[in-house]
Write a structure and sequence with these properties.
Elements (H helix, E strand, L loop, with lengths): L9 E4 L4 E2 L9 E8 L4 E5 L4 E5 L6 E5 L4 E8 L2 E7 L3 E6 L5 E6 L4 E7 L2 E6 L4 E6 L4 E6 L8 E5 L2 E5 L4 E5 L4 E5 L7 H8 L2
Antiparallel strand pairs: 1-2, 1-3, 3-4, 4-5, 5-6, 7-8, 8-9, 9-10, 11-12, 12-13, 13-14, 15-16, 16-17, 17-18
Length: about 200
Amino acid sequence: MSSSSSSSSMLSYSYNKLLPFTFEGNIKKPVICLAYDGTYIYAGTGDEGKVLRSQDGMFWDLYYQTNDKYVQSLYVSNNTLYIGTAPNGNIYTSNLITNKTTLSQTLGSEVSSFLNYNSKMYAFTSDRSGVYEYNTILESWGLIYSPYASRIYETLISNGNVIMLINSSNIIIFNGSDFYLQNIVSVAPSSSSSSSSSGV
């Protein structure tokens, strides 16, 4: 095998093994997202919508083949691997004990991320942005909020709230019941702060 000079965001793989930067036949697929369950690393790929799995980051096997072009997001919670795709917006759930994977729902828009927040699962979509909450009784994902922006770029939990970045100057804060739009404002240090820090 010959070595490839691809960047670290590209991993090349065959149907049974993946070696970083090396592949028989020189076929490359982009790795879009990663997740870790404590034992295995999962990689979501583009072009063919595959989920790969590895214990050491060197040898990779095909874990699951989705029915979409891109695996856009992966998330592990409570022995379940959540798989979000694009452009169709499929959500798959995979039981990490039995390795059984099922199609949970099709949202029709890129599933950009997942979060477990206050013991509830949330899915976030882009291209037609939305926040979906999983209803354990109905076993379905229900839309609970649609931001004005077309994309949700990043999601995280901070100070007990979900923070969503929707563009370069706005975030949305979700406290479990209400959504608040906030501006990202850069505050210049006051003159007293500047004087103090400069020792004047």
